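The pair is quoted verbatim below.
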Amino acid sequence: MIRARRLTLLASLMLSGIATAPAMAELPRLLPVPAQMHEGQGVFLISSTTPIRVPVGDAAARNAAERFADLVARSRGFRPRIETGGDSGNAIVFRRAKTGVAESYTLDVTGKGATIAAGDDAGLLYGAVTLWQAMTQDQAAGPVSVAAMQIADAPRFQWRGLMLDSARHFQSPAYVRQLIDWMAVNKLNRLHWHLVDDQGWRIEIPKYPRLTEISAWRVPAGAPGAPPLPKVGGFYTQAEIREIVTYAAARGVMIVPEIEMPGHALAAIRAYPKLGMGVPIPPGAESDWGVFPWLYNADDATFTFLEDVLTDVMALFPSPYIHIGGDEAVKDQWKSSPAMQAKMKALGISSEDAMQGWFMHRIDDFLTKHGRKPIGWDEILEGGASPHATITSWRGIEGAVTAAKSGHDAILSPAPILYFDNRQGFGPLEPPGRGHLSDLHSVYDFNPEPEGLSAAEQQHILGLQGNLFTEHVRTEERAQWQQFPRGSAVAEIGWSPVASHDFASFMDRLVPQMTRMGTLGLKPAISALTVTAKTDYASGDKAARVTLESQSGFPIHFTLDGSVVTPRAPVYKDGLSLPVGTRLRAGTVWRGGMMPGAIDIGLDASFLRRRTDEQLASCANKVVLSLEDDAPAQGERAHFLTDILQPCWLYADAPVGGASRIAIDVGQLPFNFQIGKDRDAIHFRAPATPAGELEVRAGNCEGERIAVLPLAAAVGNPEVTRLVAPIAPRSGKETLCITYTAKDVEPLWAIKQVELIP
């Protein structure tokens, strides 16, 4: 059994002894790395008696000073006092100066003080963040000496953002404020807030109360026979939104709201059916995932509704940008509607894509008349985007390239690499999500400057953002795990000069960044620090070959006698041959201290004959998801990695020799996916019993059937069931293919673990 330590990074560092002060003259490890940084002479001691001085009457400078003082209070335990006027020594001084492009700043630290200068409000904030980072290289409280240095810094891109989906799963206002804090200390400046989708309507619109009375709530789907789950949901009042917007603005974060149209509209249509095409909505459809067919109609009354909603949105959000969606609008209902076809004919529109273009243009005109800039997902290009529209390119980078060449501004947010609902590692700590691996290194290596653009066209690339859609992100704990540290990678590639990008350097600076963010409440993912082990073993062998890996690039240290791993333990180099029965412990080391994510493995025969769902391969890799069990209602639930279009697992090089039985841990899930005609293409072998069976075949999925495990015993159990069956005698190692028989897709059976038993 693998046991991984799930400690917060902050706690782990403190326990490991890393929380000691570095050499005081050492330049700080800053993230994002500044454009220019030079070492000075001496150090500047900052303590509770060190004043902060701001210009008279400069409210923005005072705000930056207050933000700085607050960060210092939360991380070092003292709050510097703020004074007005003067710039004498032994103080932290905020002042105005021409520093170049928007958001730029300079920071000058000498033995006698620190001066933050900027030409705009954002620059003052970012200078404050940089000085705070310099003060928090360790986790000690109290006074701190900061190395003398000169920094001249400016962002590479103007749009450095994260997207939070609050429609699929609701996050509290407190969490949204926390997210803004975390963004601000990474110099991320755009929060794209996805407030509306099929699964939920999250923004209060007083003129249309049913939007939140009805569509802010739903009962999650459950497998047949499973106990019903409690209702979930929530919404933000207008007062709460105003508070959050103000909170964000004070920290240099612009919130860009998104109201989806013409698709992703089920929540609105459920509340007000006349907004749709008259197609009934089955009960519980809100708890499905996928691409829904329900679209807004194009009646004048519907546009009145949307304009009323957007009027409220514009009153709440001062952002010049309003995101209006436009993605994944399946137009089957438009195609089959005589009323819509008649409207298209009257307008002289020949295709449904062009009709969507007309729809979006009408909304675009409304926003433009009110001084706002519409943003849409890259599908809006297909219907002919208005000249005012900015494009969020999510289907790769091609949408951004097309947009830029057409004179549209664009934001790079391509799936899968910048979709943070994708998993960032494989192991027992990873939460549910999409099955594609988008690890920290891959995110950091993303280049937001597409090839093939001229210099003028490149100016239309505003920047990038990481998206967190929350179908499978049920809790706030999981949301922050998915958002950071990958959000810090987005921050650095969006801010720092490309010549400074180096993953090893980034990781060296990321550890103190995540640690200091721990003082702001963050519990980040430790996926990049976690050690993973791969084993190669054949039945009867007295030893197993073990390979250790870590995304971090940090050295891996290990022990073989059960003792705790320390930095003094041997360093792993290139594979281990270990006797069966060895207890292997391994963890990564950074600057002389142990990192979280260590493993503790007992290499007994049972472990070596066992594979989890994450260690098994998908037969087809069509739509692989890590899905959460629907039971129990409270407490931990199992996760299952499965392909919903072809549930089929491969156990490569399975040590079948000497095995007499096979045990498979299985769970059942609701098939709550809106996948249109793809559902008709899912086929199973005919079951021999009413409940169906798991089938195990040797060699490949058409090979000899060597075991059958009836599913009847699992039907009545809403949680994980262990099934055991005899296995036909085999020798050596073989690939096993595991599938199941069924009459229909409901329920979706999923495997958690497979074990071969002698």
